[in-house]
Amino acid sequence: xxxxxxxxxxxxxxxxxxxxxxxxxxxxxxxxxxxxxxxxxxxxxxxxxxxxxxxxxxxxxxxxxxxxxxxxxxxxxxxxxxxxxxxxxxxxxxxxxxxxxxxxxxxxxxxxxxxxxxxxxxxxxxxxxxxxxxxxxxxxxxxxxxxxxxxxxxxxxxxxxxxxxxxxxxxxxxxxxxxxxxxxxxxxxxxxxxxxxxxxx
Amino acid sequence: xxxxxxxxxxxxxxxxxxxxxxxxxxxxxxxxxxxxxxxxxxxxxxxxxxxxxxxxxxxxxxxxxxxxxxxxxxxxxxxxxxxxxxxxxxxxxxxxxxxxxxxxxxxxxxxxxxxxxxxxxxxxxxxxxxxxxxxxxxxxxxxxxxxxxxxxxxxxxxxxxxxxxxxxxxxxxxxxxxxxxxxxxxxxxxxxxxxxxxxxxxxxxxxxxxxxxxxxxxxxxxxxxxxxxxxxxxxxxxxxxxxxxxxxxxxxxxxxxxxxxxxxxxxxxxxxxxxxxxxxxxxxxxxxxxxxxxxxxxxxxxxxxxxxxxxxxxxxxxxxxxxxxxxxxxxxxxxxxxxxxxxxxxxxxxxxxxxxxxxxxxxxxxxxxxxxxxxxxxxxxxxxxxxxxxxxxxxxxxxxxxxxxxxxxxxxxxxxxxxxxxxxxxxxxxxxxxxxxxxxxxxxxxxxxxxxxxxxxxxxxxxxxxxxxxxxxxxxxxxxxxxxxxxxxxxxxxxxxxxxxxxxxxxxxxxxxxxxxxxxxxxxxxxxxxxxxxxxxxx
Lengths: 201, 539
Hints:
The complex is a heterodimer of chains A (201) and B (539).
Chain A: H1 6-26, H2 29-33, E1 44-48, E2 54-58, H3 78-110, H4 123-132, E3 136-137, E4 145-146, H5 154-166, H6 169-196, E5 198-200
Antiparallel strand pairs in A: 1-2, 3-4
Helix pairs in contact in A: 1-3, 4-6
Chain B: H1 12-23, H2 27-40, E1 44-48, E2 60-63, E3 69-75, H3 81-97, E4 111-117, H4 123-134, E5 142-145, H5 147-158, H6 166-176, H7 186-197, H8 205-229, H9 232-253, H10 261-283, H11 286-289, H12 296-320, H13 332-338, H14 351-360, H15 367-386, H16 403-410, E6 425-426, H17 429-438, H18 442-452, E7 456-461, E8 477-481, E9 486-488, H19 489-498, H20 506-510, H21 515-521, H22 528-537
Parallel strand pairs in B: 3-4, 4-5, 6-7
Antiparallel strand pairs in B: 1-2, 2-3, 7-8
């Protein structure tokens, strides 16, 4: 063989791996909202709820492949490699996000937490959503509700923006009042829940 | 010293590796492996000394199949006439003249005496020994084993079990020449041990015995440089890994005592002796002496932490075996010495405190109260760093992250940015809560339950008990348990009382003295079962 420079190649590979990770991170906005933790061993993960029910999931592999024909290798530039890596990242990110939503949908259905009637992404729909979910309050402070993030298709977001632009100050005020009522109720529930957390007998 | 001679039938690489190790060891360095060889050769090792003044020339006492007693005086390096006269001869006189005093040995019967050295004897010394053997020592002549004999003996331990390929040879060389002042690369050593022990393959029991002898040999080659540097923590870590991998084989394949027990006892004795040497070193103000560079200012807290971990492991082991030496921990000067030795980077860093909590149960003043105070302080730490009000990701790291990782974080040496967030997660909280509940420390839990109820108890559930000894297990469930908002105290106590370590591997329950050292290395195996077991055996 002709002498090589493996250390330099390893360093370059490290950079490409890092690009792949960064790209996946950029392309998985939903997963970025969730805290990440690393698992070091095992082949499954499970959650055991306080009532003793248990949900177990096997690990899921996200993978993508690309190949470069031998004759094209001499002309493959770093930019070409990054493009291929971007495509692989897109593919893997899609698998990961789809897997996340599939699990979420399954879990929501099992625990009866889907809003009936599919209200759509409108102010009323958002309020309905707020009513149906648990809200935490940072530092147990009413003025610091931890409002949820909305994940929606670009079309739905555009539609919501259009509604917001056409909303009159009175409508906006009415929306805020309704939201305040919901959050007051949520805060009361939150504080009651907090007080209920204790050792008994 | 080197030799160009290759011993017939020996693997030349292995011979050179043993020669290198043997030539850079002193008598303390080769003593554990020498015991291992005796055991492998059919002797029963009755005693292996710490080279104190009360040994009467007998560093090792062993018996053979016929019940004949053999006593060994171990020396390091060449013995010339001056050294023979000034140092060695008086000890050999004691070795030969004073009967062996050891339970189970008939002191009225003569014993065979040996002078063993990893060096050579000057001709003048050899002549003197021959003369003495024909006169004064005629009834019980002195046997002499020098470097060549040791080399031959140790080579027999490999017994044809050599690294199978060039890559494994390289792995062994890398491990033997690693920086002996640092922590050993446990993952690499574990991978090497597995190649020798073949835990996933079925083998005849006699083959297992040979594998264990071989892995002891290789472990000693790896640990030699650490031992020569006096890096006690690293010696203990490699020895602990070695015991764990032997126990794995024993439990997985139900290996009878005759194939492994004596090997375990030799390594366990080495672990204890090394931990005692560490304690002694710290008593002699080693923490101050260890400051040799301004850079030590940043690394010293973690260096102290690792030392503290193993001194506390020793104290707990002593308590478990009813050895009153553990009581030194109650002395005020001990508290002063180990003050400010704790660093917190992750849950693994709480292990010394957890050991202290079990030791404190036996303190003469308010032991139980002091024990709960220690455990309560850990609960407070976990809730502050990973509880719902914590705001600094990644928070307290899971017990898979060790001190090496903590140093990398402190010095900005991580290859990648850490993107994890362990808010709400804890591996140690549940076992600690169970320990507090078992002991009736209701106040601590009443005070903290509101915050505890938001946590997620993490635990790794292993499908078979022998997997506890795996550094990483491919099979197993990463279980997250959500605590109840309203928790019945009675139920909590009952739950805690049910856990007594029944699910632990048989060998771990049989040798509780090993548990503290095991957890000091395998911090990720500290769970409800291990703490339940420690709680039971320290009550």
